[in-house]
Amino acid sequence: MALDSINSRLDKRLLRRARELERLNALLRGALPPELDGHYAIANIDDRTVVIMTDSPVWTTRVRQLGPRILQALSEDSSNQRLLHIRVFSRPAQAIDSKPIESKKKPPRPISSQSSQLLQQTAAGIDDDELSHALLKLAERATE
């Protein structure tokens, strides 16, 4: 039994749409300044609006400034003659930190002896055992 390729299992409409967006992104790359390459992508075309996603607010502003040029470049393509609007938003890429969370722990900050006394007094007047215990633990951070 042969394994099916992933592409054969995907919805054909989805594949056509992805290829169309890829083609339009290539068309746009040829029409826009090279410094924008890699900072934007056409995310969708809906009705008369092209939706473009950027990787930072700085590039969002730059792409918005080039709106008329973008509409013209996309309108030259026969399938997009009806485009009238551009919507641009940023979706910054999230950096993935490979270090475990435990290595990011900072040492506890010390507090003054006066703050420690106030915390102890407050803890003594609180009925909630968990909160009282937390305040006493915090009071232990006092500097001598």
Notable features of this structure?
144 residues; GMP Synthetase, Chain A, domain 3; 13% strand; elongated; alpha+beta
Mean pLDDT over all positions: 83
| Ends apart, CA distance between termini | 75 Å
What spatial form do the alpha-carbon principal axes imply?
elongated
Major sheet details: 3 strands, mixed
The level 1 CATH classification of the largest domain is Alpha Beta
Tally of individual helices: 6
Walk me through this protein's architecture.
A hairpin with a 2-residue loop joins strand 1 and strand 2 (49-54). This protein has 2 domains: 10-90, Fe-S cluster assembly (FSCA) (GMP Synthetase, Chain A, domain 3, 2-Layer Sandwich); 101-139, no CATH class. Helix 2 packs across helix 4 (67-75) and helix 5 (113-124) packs antiparallel against helix 6. It has helices spanning 6-9, 12-31, 57-65, 67-75, 113-124, 129-139, and strands at 40-46, 49-54, 85-90. The chain is elongated. The protein is built from 6 helices and 3 strands. The N and C termini lie far apart (75 Å). The model is unreliable at 95-100 (pLDDT under 50). Strands 1-2-3 form a 3-stranded mixed sheet.
Structure summarized in a few sentences:
By secondary structure, the protein is α+β, with helices and mostly antiparallel strands. It folds into two domains: 10-90, GMP Synthetase, Chain A, domain 3 (2-Layer Sandwich), CATH 3.30.300; 101-139, no CATH class. 45% of the residues lie in helices and 13% in strands.
